[in-house]
Design goal:
The chain has 1 helix and 4 strands; from the N terminus they run ββαββ. By secondary structure, the protein is α+β, with helices and mostly antiparallel strands. β3 and β4 form a beta hairpin. The protein is flat, with a radius of gyration of 10 Å.
């Protein structure tokens, strides 16, 4: 799992972009609930959860 964020030093639940390709669905749901409005993006065969804030 890798995390890309525009904020330095934030954990994965505060990140704006989180790679979720290999995470269990239950964990993806938890991140999505804590992030508010989100959408998914596919790039290079990977899936990312993107916070819309």
């Amino acid at each position: 799992m890798s995390v890309e964020s525009t904020r330095q030093g934030d954990g994965p639940t505060r990140a704006r972009v989180l790679e979720v390709s290999e995470l269990p669905t239950s964990e993806v749901r938890r991140y999505a609930r804590s992030a508010g409005e989100v959408h998914f993006e596919r790039r290079g065969g990977r899936t990312f959860l993107v916070a819309d804030r």
